[in-house]
């Protein structure tokens, strides 16, 4: 393990859900910091537009809720770019309202896709993260995990499950004694916080192995 800041120069970072507003800001920030950026989305047209908008981005289309599709994505990334040093999970969305009776199964199934994607992607690139001298995985959660509401019960339940998965990843990293970190960022809403999120993600690599160990398993409220 190095005692020097790792930095992003030459690192390969995969953004899951990269065609969102926050994904575009993050992609630019990572490229500016010297990283290779693999931008993953489910819509080829939006991926093509992202590649045109931000030269240098490596676009990949994949259904991250399909395990086979994620494994094929991993094979393409490994063959074309190499091992991954970071995974940033931005797959999300909101459905809610109507109190407890209004928490429909249809809405839950849509929201659950983000948790499914997190599970598949983190497993597919787990060995990469442990082997990297600066492995990082981060996701965006919600402040409602600490203050659930009846109208957002489905949404918050999915975010809480995702945070639990991230804590499990953190325990696995610690057990492996890898110079890596699993970090959760919470927001009330990402709108207006895209730049702060991007800066916080970039900062994950501005630390040495000891700093990564300190950050591993942490939850950072970007809305505070």
Radius of gyration: 17 Å
Roughly how much helix do the residues carry, as a percent range? 40-55%
- Kindly give the count of domains: 1
Order of helices and strands: EHEHEHEHHEHEHHE
Cα end-to-end separation: 33 Å
- Could you say what the CATH topology is called? Rossmann fold
CATH superfamily heading: NAD(P)-binding Rossmann-like Domain
The total of beta strands comes to 7
Q: In the CATH hierarchy, what is the class?
A: Alpha Beta
Features:
seven-stranded parallel sheet; alpha/beta; 16% strand
What does this structure look like?
With 224 residues, the protein is an alpha/beta fold. It has one domain (12-221): 3-Layer(aba) Sandwich (Rossmann fold). It contains eight helices and seven strands, in the order βαβαβαβααβαβααβ. It has helices at 21-32, 44-53, 67-80, 105-124, 126-131, 153-176, 194-203, 209-215; strands at 12-16, 36-41, 58-61, 86-89, 136-142, 181-187, 219-221. It has a seven-stranded parallel sheet, with helices on both faces. The two termini are 33 Å apart. 45% of the residues are buried.
Write the layout of secondary structure elements.
Layout: E1 12-16, H1 21-32, E2 36-41, H2 44-53, E3 58-61, H3 67-80, E4 86-89, H4 105-124, H5 126-131, E5 136-142, H6 153-176, E6 181-187, H7 194-203, H8 209-215, E7 219-221
Parallel strand pairs: 1-2, 1-4, 2-3, 4-5, 5-6, 6-7
Helix pairs in contact: 1-7, 4-6
Quick description:
The protein is α/β, with parallel strands linked by helices.
């Amino acid at each position: 393990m190095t005692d020097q800041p790792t930095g992003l120069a030459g690192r390969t970072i995969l953004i899951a859900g990269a065609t969102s507003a926050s994904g575009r800001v993050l992609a630019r920030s990572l490229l500016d910091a010297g990283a290779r950026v693999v931008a993953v989305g489910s819509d080829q047209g939006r991926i093509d537009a992202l590649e045109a908008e931000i030269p240098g981005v490596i676009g990949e289309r994949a259904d991250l809720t399909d395990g086979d599709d994620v494994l094929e994505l991993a094979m393409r990334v490994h063959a074309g770019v190499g091992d991954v040093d970071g995974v940033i999970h931005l797959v999300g969305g909101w459905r809610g309202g109507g109190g407890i009776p209004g928490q429909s199964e249809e809405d839950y199934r849509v929201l659950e896709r983000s948790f499914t994607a997190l599970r598949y992607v983190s497993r597919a690139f787990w060995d990469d993260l442990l082997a990297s001298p600066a492995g990082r995985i981060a996701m965006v959660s919600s402040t409602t995990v600490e203050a659930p509401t009846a109208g957002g019960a489905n949404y918050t339940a999915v975010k809480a499950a995702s945070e639990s998965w991230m804590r499990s990843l953190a325990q696995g990293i610690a057990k492996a004694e890898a110079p890596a970190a699993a970090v959760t960022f919470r927001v009330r809403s990402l709108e207006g916080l895209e730049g702060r999120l991007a800066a916080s993600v970039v900062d994950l690599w501005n630390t040495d192995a000891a700093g990564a160990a300190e950050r591993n398993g942490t939850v950072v409220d970007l809305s505070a």
